[in-house]
């Protein structure tokens, strides 16, 4: 009966767990006063640009997991009253709002998202990621940043070891309030995940680090690594919609706790039950559900048979607000007696709360049970006959089953038999003990009847004793001769025949690690014997245990006796183990080896004290002419570690047995890599970094140059690998364009990576860069025809007054190219500026077409500026001089070289020299308009 109950309990438990999981997978609206709380959810990486991690076996991508989970998080938050949104558009978005209208440029991914979130005054940012690592790595973890430079710059310090590339992390010893709230949320997430998520385990890791997306916010922010894409089993679970919703629910629960949402428990004023015939009605009144209500469950079971009939019933809401469920006892096998009823409420987070419990009594008159007047068992030879008589089956009878087992070995031989109806109405079955391992002794016999409803009822039990003659032996003995043991079994009596005698033997050294089973051979006197060699038992000395088993014609194995013997084995030894150091080499010598059982090899394991045994290596020593064994090793094979080295020695004999021969240690001094100088020079937009005078006793794997501008912290940090030069120095050339074209101070560190992968700081320097994107000075790259074509395409009418002076459009363009060439100014810049300043020679402002002033020189509100026609003539010469004055003024701004021609620039001033090296720098210098450069460049693009 106990077996059947256990099976039913397993099924019931499975039903319970299924219901619990299904409940967790669903989510419902919660009345949280959170409408004013704005939350940005960022799915990490960017579809079509950066997939993140990808599982090599099934191709599941991190970016898809991030997007799917983020969509569920935003949906769940919005259904619970939060103003939640995705940070940017993603595939599969069912219409949820997004912070950005288009995906951000990947080079400015985190900056764009964080700046926009800061701008709208968001209350929280959550970044969704999934991890990658070893194939067995598993679990979730959380990251928060104490460093928020947009809010607080006090107490900043740097900490190594948080980034795998060796870079230092910026942390804040006095974190601002938003950082402390970030940490609080990370802890809440970890607690809720570990308590309520079953498909992915906790790594119990909450990490303080300056991740780009979390450090740039001016509100609390947490980065979630929700599991490992590299784990084949875990990634499939993470891709499951139900599991993703389960995690979204726990993120909601954590955010509710952070913002103080209602966490009161669900309650009920009463839970009652009543019986009417074969029906039980359960009712729960006065349900209060502060966190929402998904469902009311009422689990019911009878006391008979434990919880083997457990069923969970969903209650239905009634008109008066109560919840009720009606249970039919036929669904509980018509069990009579006491019934247990519990009541659970499930809230919007999937949390189960016990609301009450009660009991009712169902009378036996509801349904009569099946009975039997007797269950008996009789023995005849190797057969047992079980008989069930006087069966009364009010609900019909479909079968009688008889489970039978011997007491030998517990229920290892349990078998269920179907009894056959006899002419007198009884049921009978005969079994053979050969189907029960030929066990002798007591046999247990139970009887169960199955009615028309499929209900199984225990009818009774009995037992029977079967006498089985077993194999015996008068003696089991053993003797030792050298390295051999002979075991002997005598006086065997085998009533059921004998097919073989088996002798298991093992030494007491290391338990039964050397256990071997040997077949014994029958001798002429009827005894059985076997001789074994201890080399097959690791040449172990000491006590050997010897057992004997006989197997009969029924294939039954019987223990017939045991003995033990003592074997004396002389172990391998060595008189000395020594080691010496020469530079980066260690030589180990083993002398005076004595090997009674032969010598196959000498093994020498060596490791440094640095980081435990992470560098442990086993070396094979070589025999020397004097009979000693020696091996020389290089510390480069031990990560160039300095300090104490541990050396052990083991000898292996001809049987393969390994013996410890001794140990020693030596100390090795090492020097880390260094450099005499780290220097940087700047030419235009390029920074050349040179690391000189490198000394590397432990070898050079590479030289790394992390570089960043001091604008916006380390948002543009890039690690460059320097190249070795012929003089032994290492050099790298860095384009400021790779760093957003930032102007100002660039910070440059140099790290040497030794042969073992260790990073060693070699020095640092800085360089000042004035980034020039669109230079004013330089070679002209447009043709006169292109400039003419631009003007004609503009739709503007070339001034007739210039034609009358003999300067048509083609001549006008040639004059600009000519004047620019003389002073080294790019004609495309000057011409585009003239077109902007004059409105394609239409003028119309303070400056008149007749002034030949093509750049507004001297013109301010209401003042027409310099008139070249008055000073230099109202003719072609005056017009050309006006062009010259414009070009010379551009040169005054863009370089410090002398003019090639006589100065005609009325606004020339040495104080403004080098004020604008590029078109971009004309904005705010030449003109107050901050879009001035953009407008000039827009014209240039049309050439």
UniProtKB/TrEMBL annotation:
Q: Which GO terms describe its molecular function?
A: amidase activity; N-acetylmuramoyl-L-alanine amidase activity
A Gene Ontology biological process term = peptidoglycan catabolic process
Task: List residues of the MurNAc-LAA domain.
Answer: 114-256
| Key words, A-Z | Hydrolase, Membrane, Transmembrane, Transmembrane helix
Q: Has the keyword Secreted been applied to this entry?
A: no
A Pfam match: GBS_Bsp-like
What superkingdom does the record give?
Bacteria
Q: Does the keyword Membrane apply?
A: yes
Q: Where are the transmembrane segments?
A: 12-30
GO cellular component annotations of the record: outer membrane-bounded periplasmic space
Q: Give the protein's recorded name.
A: Amidase
- Give the species: Acetobacterium woodii (strain ATCC 29683 / DSM 1030 / JCM 2381 / KCTC 1655 / WB1)
